[in-house]
Structure formats: C-alpha cells, structure tokens
Design brief:
8 helices, TM2D1-3-like, transmembrane helix, TM2
Length: 112
C-alpha cells in the first residue's frame, strides 16, 4: 500500500488506538494488499472519549460496556448497579483503554 495513504489513515484514526500500537499498525497497513484497503477504510471505530463520557453518565447501567461490545461485562454491571458503584468508578479509568483495544481487534480482524 502507498505510504501516503497509510499516513493519512493514521493521522485521521490515531486517537482510536493506543500510542504504542501505532508503529506496528502502520507497518502492517503498508504491507497490506490493495484489495483489503477498501475494507479497512470503511471501518467505523468507537471514540474513547465518547466511551468515557457515557461511562461517567451511565456507567452503573453498563451502557459503556455494551457500546464497545463487551456484552457480558455490560450485563454484569447492569445487574449489580455498576458493581455497587465501585466497578463503575474503576471503569472511568479503564474504559478508554478497553475501547482502544476493541478498535485494534476490529482492525486486526479486517486486516487478517
């Protein structure tokens, strides 16, 4: 793949991934087949900042975990009122990283 296209993709989507993964993502996208490039460009990633805001507002209901695709954890938070509010508060610090990890999994699924 052309480095210029990859760099544009990385500039537009860097906030959706952990910073220590960016170099490996870039290298993998450069080596990517042109046939898969269209699929990668159409991926919709979850915004970590939005996940944090939802976690602060409605974290006790598990909506933040449902948003990123952690259905089991979302049900657990919903049934326990956010782990009696402890789990909800802990998620304020963890939800952005979890969102970025889910985005990486989605990208890896599309690439491989």
């Amino acid at each position: 793949m052309e480095a210029q296209k990859v760099d544009m993709f990385m500039m537009a989507n860097a906030k959706f991934f952990e910073s220590h993964h960016l170099n490996s993502i870039r290298d993998r996208l450069i080596a990517l087949d042109d046939a898969k490039w269209g699929q990668v460009q159409t991926l919709q990633f979850k915004d970590p900042t939005t996940s944090l805001i939802v976690s602060i507002i409605a974290g006790t209901l598990g909506i933040d975990r449902f948003m990123i695709g952690d259905t089991g954890l979302g049900i657990g938070k919903l049934l326990t009122c956010g782990g009696f509010y402890v789990w909800a508060i802990v998620d304020w610090f963890l939800i952005q990283g979890a969102t970025r990890e889910k985005n990486l999994e989605k990208l890896q699924t599309a690439i491989y």
